[in-house]
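>> received
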Amino acid sequence: MFRWIVQWILSAVALMIVTRIVPGFYITGPQSALIAALVIGGLNATLGYFLKFVTFPLVILTFGIFILFINAAILILASKLVDGFYVYGFTPALWAAAVLAILGLIIRFVSSED
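>> returned
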């Protein structure tokens, strides 16, 4: 349970970092970041897996790059559902998905147990 809470908080922090890096990607505060991280996680766990399964041939054809487009769409959908979380266009969502993927790798590397 504690590990899940830490991952949730780190995901919210990653969203706040992306706000500083990507223009057109805004979060109004830490509470919105926590809610957005929860919603994005839920969407990735449900709709994200479905979309990745359905578009698997396209993902293979593009060597995995298409997953960024799926993640960008999830970010846009989450911004429609969460107050205080705004993504203004597909291009900022695509850049945010790329930055979040890199930050996610760093978070998983730092928090991994050997």
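>> Residues 34 and 75 are 14 Å apart (CA to CA).
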